[in-house]
Design brief:
Elements: H1 4-10, E1 17-20, E2 24-28, E3 38-42, H2 54-75, E4 79-83, E5 99-104, H3 121-135
Antiparallel strand pairs: 1-2, 2-3, 3-5, 4-5
Helix pairs in contact: 2-3
Bound molecules: guanosine-5'-monophosphate (5GP) and zinc ion.
Guanosine-5'-monophosphate binds at residues 4, 15, 27-31, 85, 91-94, 116.
């Protein structure tokens, strides 16, 4: 199947991974809306909320909470935007279920209506390292 997120799960495409368990994977978004922008996915392919099974959804939500707490501990955001899109009309671009965690700071200037801006890979890796450290604390 030609799915970029399935390829990241399989290690066929690079991904900056921060956490995984049997059913779910958390990795850094390559076009981060803010420092620490993570995606949480099921390891098994499901396109949308309408398709995903309850066990995968529970695992993904559990991981979202775990990673959100690690982002809070390591990056000290003022808040966090959590979102999940279904279908082109809702602006879903990658057809593999994913939850976005976007840490927010006062006056950070994040504007979701702006298109993608490729992130600096070294900076994304450095932020991922902080999140990983908080996850193992
Ligand atoms: P959507 O609009 O489908 O909710 O968002 C898809 C997200 O996947 C976007 O935030 C985009 O930056 C991210 N993305 C797209 N391709 C890749 C990739 O190859 N690697 C990573 N890490 N993120 C990606
Ligand atoms: Zn997939």
């Amino acid at each position: 199947m030609d799915c970029i997120f399935c390829k990241i799960v399989a290690g066929q495409l690079p991904g900056i991974k921060v956490f995984e368990d049997a059913r779910s994977l958390a990795f850094m978004d390559i076009n981060p809306r803010s420092d620490g922008h993570c995606l949480i996915i099921p390891k098994t392919h499901s396109p949308t909320l309408f398709d995903i099974g309850m066990e995968d959804l529970a695992a993904v939500m559990n991981t979202a909470k775990k990673v959100a707490m690690a982002i809070k501990a390591s990056l000290a955001p003022d808040g966090m935007l959590v979102y999940q899109l279904n279908g082109r009309v809702a602006m879903q671009l990658v057809d593999h279920f994913h939850i976005h965690l976007v840490p927010r700071w006062e006056n950070d200037g994040v504007d979701l209506s702006h298109g993608f801006q490729p992130g600096d890979l070294d900076k994304i890796r450095a932020v991922a390292g902080k999140i990983i450290e908080a996850l193992s604390a």
